[in-house]
Amino acid sequence: MIQASGLRKQYGTTVALDGVDLHVREGEIYGVLGQSGAGKSTLLRCVNLLERPTAGTVTVAGQDLTALGSAELNRARQRIGMIHQHFALLSSRTVAGNVAFPLEVMGVPKAERERRVAELLELVGLDGRGKDRPHQLSGGQKQRVGIARALAGEPAVLLSDEATSALDPATTQSILALLKRLNAELGLTILLITHEMNVVKSVCDSVAIMANGRIEESGAIADLIRTPGSRLTREIFPLPEPAPAGSVTLTFTGDPRQPVVSEPVVSEVVRKFDVDLSILGGSIEELPAGPVGRLRVTLDGADRPAALAYLRDSGLIVEEAA
Ligand SMILES: Nc1ncnc2c1ncn2[C@@H]1O[C@H](COP(=O)(O)OP(=O)(O)OP(=O)(O)O)[C@@H](O)[C@H]1O
Fold first, then answer.
1. Of 125, 199, 206, 322, which is least surrounded by CB within 10 A?
2. Which CATH number fits domain 237-320: 3.40.1030.10, 3.40.50.1950, 3.40.50.11890, 3.30.70.260?
3. Are 4 and 48 in contact (CB under 8 A)?
4. What's the pLDDT tens digit per position in 6-19?
Protein backbone atom coordinates (compact mmCIF):
# COMPACT_ATOMS: atom_id res chain seq x y z
CA MET A 1 0.00 0.00 0.00
CA ILE A 2 2.93 2.31 0.76
CA GLN A 3 6.24 1.75 -0.95
CA ALA A 4 9.16 4.11 -0.41
CA SER A 5 12.39 3.35 -2.21
CA GLY A 6 15.80 4.92 -1.75
CA LEU A 7 14.40 7.93 0.13
CA ARG A 8 16.95 10.58 0.87
CA LYS A 9 16.30 13.99 2.41
CA GLN A 10 18.97 16.55 3.03
CA TYR A 11 18.59 19.90 4.79
CA GLY A 12 21.79 21.82 4.02
CA THR A 13 24.49 19.54 5.38
CA THR A 14 22.07 17.57 7.63
CA VAL A 15 21.09 14.22 6.16
CA ALA A 16 17.66 13.50 7.71
CA LEU A 17 16.95 10.42 5.56
CA ASP A 18 19.83 8.40 4.25
CA GLY A 19 18.45 5.81 1.82
CA VAL A 20 15.20 4.57 3.38
CA ASP A 21 13.17 1.71 1.92
CA LEU A 22 9.76 1.10 3.42
CA HIS A 23 7.08 -1.38 2.47
CA VAL A 24 3.72 -1.13 4.24
CA ARG A 25 1.23 -3.80 3.25
CA GLU A 26 -2.47 -3.12 2.76
CA GLY A 27 -4.47 -3.40 5.99
CA GLU A 28 -1.56 -3.45 8.40
CA ILE A 29 -0.54 -1.15 11.24
CA TYR A 30 3.10 -0.29 10.67
CA GLY A 31 5.15 1.50 13.32
CA VAL A 32 8.31 3.52 12.78
CA LEU A 33 10.17 3.60 16.08
CA GLY A 34 13.14 5.79 16.88
CA GLN A 35 14.59 8.38 19.19
CA SER A 36 14.35 12.12 18.69
CA GLY A 37 16.23 13.19 15.57
CA ALA A 38 16.18 9.71 13.98
CA GLY A 39 14.28 11.05 10.96
CA LYS A 40 10.79 9.70 11.70
CA SER A 41 8.86 12.94 11.08
CA THR A 42 10.83 13.63 7.93
CA LEU A 43 9.97 10.13 6.67
CA LEU A 44 6.26 10.65 7.39
CA ARG A 45 6.24 14.06 5.69
CA CYS A 46 8.00 12.55 2.68
CA VAL A 47 5.37 9.80 2.43
CA ASN A 48 2.62 12.34 1.70
CA LEU A 49 5.07 14.69 0.03
CA LEU A 50 4.58 17.54 2.51
CA GLU A 51 8.37 17.40 2.09
CA ARG A 52 9.78 16.55 -1.32
CA PRO A 53 12.54 13.96 -0.93
CA THR A 54 15.97 14.90 -2.27
CA ALA A 55 16.01 11.48 -3.96
CA GLY A 56 13.87 8.36 -4.10
CA THR A 57 10.25 7.52 -4.87
CA VAL A 58 7.04 7.16 -2.86
CA THR A 59 4.12 5.10 -4.11
CA VAL A 60 0.81 5.11 -2.22
CA ALA A 61 -2.08 2.89 -3.34
CA GLY A 62 -0.27 2.20 -6.60
CA GLN A 63 0.30 5.87 -7.44
CA ASP A 64 3.83 7.27 -7.67
CA LEU A 65 3.39 10.54 -5.73
CA THR A 66 6.87 11.77 -6.62
CA ALA A 67 5.85 11.86 -10.29
CA LEU A 68 2.67 13.95 -9.82
CA GLY A 69 2.12 17.63 -10.53
CA SER A 70 0.66 19.81 -7.75
CA ALA A 71 -3.04 19.51 -8.73
CA GLU A 72 -2.84 15.72 -9.02
CA LEU A 73 -0.85 15.56 -5.79
CA ASN A 74 -3.55 17.50 -3.93
CA ARG A 75 -6.15 15.02 -5.18
CA ALA A 76 -3.99 12.04 -4.19
CA ARG A 77 -3.45 13.53 -0.72
CA GLN A 78 -7.21 13.46 -0.09
CA ARG A 79 -6.83 9.67 0.14
CA ILE A 80 -4.09 10.02 2.78
CA GLY A 81 -5.35 11.06 6.23
CA MET A 82 -3.04 12.47 8.86
CA ILE A 83 -3.26 12.93 12.62
CA HIS A 84 -0.89 15.01 14.72
CA GLN A 85 0.66 15.00 18.18
CA HIS A 86 -0.96 18.32 19.13
CA PHE A 87 -4.19 17.60 17.22
CA ALA A 88 -3.96 20.69 14.92
CA LEU A 89 -7.65 21.58 15.36
CA LEU A 90 -9.08 24.96 14.34
CA SER A 91 -10.06 26.67 17.60
CA SER A 92 -12.46 29.03 15.82
CA ARG A 93 -14.58 26.13 14.58
CA THR A 94 -16.83 23.70 16.42
CA VAL A 95 -16.00 20.01 16.59
CA ALA A 96 -18.39 19.39 13.66
CA GLY A 97 -16.85 22.34 11.79
CA ASN A 98 -13.38 20.82 12.15
CA VAL A 99 -14.51 17.46 10.81
CA ALA A 100 -16.44 19.17 7.99
CA PHE A 101 -13.43 21.22 6.90
CA PRO A 102 -11.85 18.71 4.48
CA LEU A 103 -15.31 17.94 3.06
CA GLU A 104 -15.82 21.66 2.34
CA VAL A 105 -12.45 21.77 0.57
CA MET A 106 -13.54 18.77 -1.52
CA GLY A 107 -16.78 20.59 -2.45
CA VAL A 108 -19.13 18.06 -0.79
CA PRO A 109 -22.68 19.57 -0.64
CA LYS A 110 -23.96 20.75 2.78
CA ALA A 111 -26.57 18.02 3.43
CA GLU A 112 -24.12 15.26 2.49
CA ARG A 113 -21.46 16.94 4.62
CA GLU A 114 -23.69 17.04 7.68
CA ARG A 115 -24.59 13.39 7.26
CA ARG A 116 -20.91 12.38 6.92
CA VAL A 117 -19.85 14.48 9.93
CA ALA A 118 -22.53 12.85 12.13
CA GLU A 119 -21.38 9.39 10.98
CA LEU A 120 -17.73 10.19 11.61
CA LEU A 121 -18.36 11.58 15.09
CA GLU A 122 -20.31 8.46 15.97
CA LEU A 123 -17.50 6.28 14.58
CA VAL A 124 -14.92 7.87 16.92
CA GLY A 125 -17.21 7.92 19.97
CA LEU A 126 -18.06 11.65 19.95
CA ASP A 127 -21.75 11.38 19.22
CA GLY A 128 -23.55 14.56 20.32
CA ARG A 129 -20.36 16.63 20.80
CA GLY A 130 -20.50 18.33 17.38
CA LYS A 131 -21.45 21.77 18.74
CA ASP A 132 -18.61 21.89 21.30
CA ARG A 133 -15.47 23.91 20.74
CA PRO A 134 -12.07 22.16 20.85
CA HIS A 135 -11.13 23.87 24.15
CA GLN A 136 -14.08 22.14 25.84
CA LEU A 137 -12.61 18.71 25.09
CA SER A 138 -10.00 16.55 26.81
CA GLY A 139 -6.81 15.64 24.96
CA GLY A 140 -8.17 12.21 24.06
CA GLN A 141 -11.41 13.73 22.75
CA LYS A 142 -9.42 16.27 20.69
CA GLN A 143 -7.48 13.43 19.12
CA ARG A 144 -10.77 11.68 18.31
CA VAL A 145 -11.83 14.83 16.44
CA GLY A 146 -8.46 14.73 14.64
CA ILE A 147 -9.11 11.13 13.66
CA ALA A 148 -12.67 11.87 12.46
CA ARG A 149 -11.33 14.76 10.34
CA ALA A 150 -8.57 12.55 8.92
CA LEU A 151 -11.15 9.95 7.90
CA ALA A 152 -13.47 12.46 6.19
CA GLY A 153 -11.94 11.91 2.74
CA GLU A 154 -12.30 8.11 3.14
CA PRO A 155 -8.56 7.63 3.01
CA ALA A 156 -6.89 4.36 2.12
CA VAL A 157 -4.03 5.26 4.42
CA LEU A 158 -3.79 7.05 7.77
CA LEU A 159 -0.49 8.62 8.82
CA SER A 160 -0.06 9.20 12.53
CA ASP A 161 2.59 11.64 13.73
CA GLU A 162 3.17 10.76 17.43
CA ALA A 163 -0.63 10.88 17.90
CA THR A 164 -0.53 9.65 21.49
CA SER A 165 2.63 11.40 22.73
CA ALA A 166 0.72 14.23 24.41
CA LEU A 167 -1.73 11.89 26.16
CA ASP A 168 -1.66 10.07 29.51
CA PRO A 169 -1.23 6.27 29.51
CA ALA A 170 -4.93 5.37 29.86
CA THR A 171 -5.98 7.84 27.14
CA THR A 172 -3.13 6.57 24.95
CA GLN A 173 -4.52 3.05 25.24
CA SER A 174 -8.06 4.22 24.35
CA ILE A 175 -6.79 6.03 21.23
CA LEU A 176 -4.69 3.01 20.24
CA ALA A 177 -7.77 0.79 20.70
CA LEU A 178 -9.73 3.15 18.42
CA LEU A 179 -7.00 3.00 15.74
CA LYS A 180 -6.98 -0.81 16.00
CA ARG A 181 -10.77 -0.91 15.60
CA LEU A 182 -10.69 1.40 12.56
CA ASN A 183 -7.94 -0.76 11.08
CA ALA A 184 -10.05 -3.90 11.56
CA GLU A 185 -13.46 -2.46 10.61
CA LEU A 186 -12.48 -0.20 7.71
CA GLY A 187 -9.40 -2.14 6.53
CA LEU A 188 -7.51 1.12 7.04
CA THR A 189 -3.74 0.90 6.53
CA ILE A 190 -1.98 2.88 9.27
CA LEU A 191 1.60 4.15 9.28
CA LEU A 192 2.49 5.59 12.65
CA ILE A 193 5.66 7.12 13.99
CA THR A 194 6.46 6.95 17.67
CA HIS A 195 9.29 7.00 20.17
CA GLU A 196 7.33 4.69 22.50
CA MET A 197 7.89 0.95 22.36
CA ASN A 198 4.59 0.60 24.21
CA VAL A 199 2.71 1.88 21.13
CA VAL A 200 4.48 -0.65 18.91
CA LYS A 201 3.79 -3.49 21.36
CA SER A 202 0.10 -2.59 21.67
CA VAL A 203 -1.01 -2.25 18.06
CA CYS A 204 1.63 -2.75 15.39
CA ASP A 205 1.81 -5.70 13.01
CA SER A 206 5.14 -4.55 11.57
CA VAL A 207 7.85 -2.16 12.64
CA ALA A 208 10.89 -0.30 11.34
CA ILE A 209 13.50 0.79 13.87
CA MET A 210 15.14 4.04 12.75
CA ALA A 211 18.38 5.72 13.81
CA ASN A 212 20.47 8.41 12.10
CA GLY A 213 18.20 8.63 9.05
CA ARG A 214 18.36 4.90 8.36
CA ILE A 215 16.19 1.90 9.02
CA GLU A 216 18.23 -0.48 11.16
CA GLU A 217 15.74 -3.32 11.23
CA SER A 218 12.27 -3.83 9.79
CA GLY A 219 9.65 -6.47 9.20
CA ALA A 220 6.64 -8.20 10.69
CA ILE A 221 6.95 -8.22 14.48
CA ALA A 222 6.25 -11.97 14.62
CA ASP A 223 9.16 -12.57 12.19
CA LEU A 224 11.58 -10.25 13.99
CA ILE A 225 10.86 -11.96 17.32
CA ARG A 226 11.85 -15.24 15.64
CA THR A 227 15.10 -13.76 14.35
CA PRO A 228 17.94 -14.52 16.76
CA GLY A 229 19.71 -11.36 17.91
CA SER A 230 17.01 -8.99 16.63
CA ARG A 231 17.16 -5.52 18.07
CA LEU A 232 13.38 -5.43 18.51
CA THR A 233 13.44 -8.52 20.75
CA ARG A 234 16.25 -7.04 22.85
CA GLU A 235 14.34 -3.78 23.24
CA ILE A 236 10.99 -5.39 24.11
CA PHE A 237 12.61 -7.73 26.62
CA PRO A 238 15.55 -5.85 28.08
CA LEU A 239 18.04 -8.16 29.77
CA PRO A 240 21.56 -7.22 30.86
CA GLU A 241 23.91 -7.14 27.84
CA PRO A 242 26.23 -8.80 27.17
CA ALA A 243 24.72 -12.01 28.49
CA PRO A 244 26.93 -13.62 31.17
CA ALA A 245 29.32 -16.26 29.81
CA GLY A 246 27.70 -19.69 29.71
CA SER A 247 24.14 -18.37 30.09
CA VAL A 248 21.35 -19.29 27.69
CA THR A 249 18.65 -16.88 26.51
CA LEU A 250 15.40 -18.53 25.46
CA THR A 251 12.81 -16.71 23.35
CA PHE A 252 9.30 -18.14 23.33
CA THR A 253 8.01 -16.97 19.98
CA GLY A 254 4.31 -17.66 19.97
CA ASP A 255 5.11 -19.97 17.04
CA PRO A 256 2.14 -22.27 16.19
CA ARG A 257 4.46 -25.24 16.86
CA GLN A 258 4.89 -23.94 20.38
CA PRO A 259 1.43 -22.54 21.02
CA VAL A 260 1.55 -20.99 24.46
CA VAL A 261 4.33 -19.39 26.39
CA SER A 262 3.22 -21.22 29.50
CA GLU A 263 3.84 -24.68 27.95
CA PRO A 264 5.82 -26.45 30.66
CA VAL A 265 8.83 -26.82 28.39
CA VAL A 266 11.25 -25.52 31.01
CA SER A 267 10.11 -27.92 33.73
CA GLU A 268 10.09 -30.71 31.14
CA VAL A 269 13.70 -30.10 30.22
CA VAL A 270 14.75 -30.39 33.86
CA ARG A 271 12.73 -33.60 34.29
CA LYS A 272 13.90 -35.24 31.08
CA PHE A 273 17.59 -34.37 31.22
CA ASP A 274 20.31 -34.40 33.83
CA VAL A 275 20.61 -30.59 34.13
CA ASP A 276 20.28 -27.88 36.78
CA LEU A 277 18.44 -24.79 35.61
CA SER A 278 18.56 -21.37 37.30
CA ILE A 279 16.55 -18.38 36.11
CA LEU A 280 18.54 -15.14 35.79
CA GLY A 281 15.74 -12.95 34.44
CA GLY A 282 12.95 -12.66 31.92
CA SER A 283 9.47 -11.40 31.06
CA ILE A 284 6.39 -12.16 29.01
CA GLU A 285 4.46 -9.72 26.79
CA GLU A 286 1.07 -10.05 25.15
CA LEU A 287 1.62 -8.78 21.59
CA PRO A 288 -0.93 -8.61 18.75
CA ALA A 289 0.95 -11.63 17.30
CA GLY A 290 0.35 -13.57 20.53
CA PRO A 291 2.13 -14.07 23.84
CA VAL A 292 5.90 -13.84 23.58
CA GLY A 293 8.49 -14.27 26.31
CA ARG A 294 12.21 -14.18 26.93
CA LEU A 295 13.99 -16.01 29.70
CA ARG A 296 17.69 -16.03 30.62
CA VAL A 297 18.89 -19.10 32.43
CA THR A 298 21.97 -21.08 33.33
CA LEU A 299 21.79 -24.72 32.36
CA ASP A 300 24.50 -26.99 33.67
CA GLY A 301 25.01 -30.72 33.73
CA ALA A 302 26.06 -33.70 31.63
CA ASP A 303 22.99 -33.49 29.33
CA ARG A 304 23.30 -29.78 28.52
CA PRO A 305 23.75 -30.29 24.72
CA ALA A 306 20.76 -32.65 24.54
CA ALA A 307 18.66 -30.31 26.69
CA LEU A 308 19.46 -27.34 24.40
CA ALA A 309 18.60 -29.42 21.32
CA TYR A 310 15.29 -30.35 22.96
CA LEU A 311 14.49 -26.68 23.61
CA ARG A 312 15.30 -25.82 19.98
CA ASP A 313 13.10 -28.69 18.75
CA SER A 314 10.29 -27.35 20.93
CA GLY A 315 10.27 -24.17 18.80
CA LEU A 316 12.20 -21.87 21.16
CA ILE A 317 14.97 -19.58 19.95
CA VAL A 318 18.04 -20.63 21.94
CA GLU A 319 21.00 -18.23 22.19
CA GLU A 320 24.08 -19.42 24.05
CA ALA A 321 26.52 -16.84 25.41
CA ALA A 322 30.13 -17.90 24.81
N1 LIG B 1 13.01 21.65 8.20
C2 LIG B 1 14.21 21.24 8.62
N3 LIG B 1 15.33 21.98 8.42
C4 LIG B 1 16.54 21.57 8.83
N5 LIG B 1 16.78 20.39 9.46
C6 LIG B 1 15.71 19.61 9.70
C7 LIG B 1 14.39 19.99 9.31
N8 LIG B 1 13.53 18.99 9.68
C9 LIG B 1 14.29 18.05 10.29
N10 LIG B 1 15.60 18.41 10.30
C11 LIG B 1 16.72 17.63 10.86
O12 LIG B 1 16.61 16.30 10.36
C13 LIG B 1 16.91 15.34 11.37
C14 LIG B 1 15.72 14.40 11.57
O15 LIG B 1 14.64 15.14 12.14
P16 LIG B 1 13.16 14.52 12.35
O17 LIG B 1 12.30 15.61 12.90
O18 LIG B 1 12.74 13.85 11.11
O19 LIG B 1 13.46 13.42 13.47
P20 LIG B 1 12.42 12.67 14.41
O21 LIG B 1 12.90 11.27 14.53
O22 LIG B 1 11.04 12.87 13.92
O23 LIG B 1 12.62 13.41 15.79
P24 LIG B 1 11.49 14.07 16.75
O25 LIG B 1 10.77 12.89 17.35
O26 LIG B 1 12.29 14.83 17.76
O27 LIG B 1 10.63 14.92 15.88
C28 LIG B 1 17.28 16.15 12.60
O29 LIG B 1 18.69 16.27 12.65
C30 LIG B 1 16.63 17.49 12.37
O31 LIG B 1 17.34 18.52 13.01
1. 322
2. 3.30.70.260
3. no
4. 999 999 999 999 99
pLDDT digits (tens, 9 = 90+) for 275-295: 999 999 998 888 887 788 899
Q: Which of 41, 50, 196, 216 to mutate to test the pocket of ligand 1 (most atoms within 8 A of CB)?
A: 41
42 lines ligand 1 (CB under 6 A): yes
Cα distances from 302 to residues 93, 275, 276, 299, 308, in angstroms, run 74, 7, 10, 10, 12
Of 289, 288, 279, nearest in space to 253 by CA: 289
Residue minimizing CA distance to atom 3 of ligand 1? 11
Ligand 1 contacts CB of residue 290 (under 6 A) = no
Whole-complex ipTM: 0.95
11 C-beta closer than 6 A to ligand 1: yes
Q: Is the distance from the beta carbon of residue 212 to the nearest atom of ligand 1 less than 6 Å?
A: no
Please give the model's pTM, rounded to 2 decimal places. Answer: 0.90
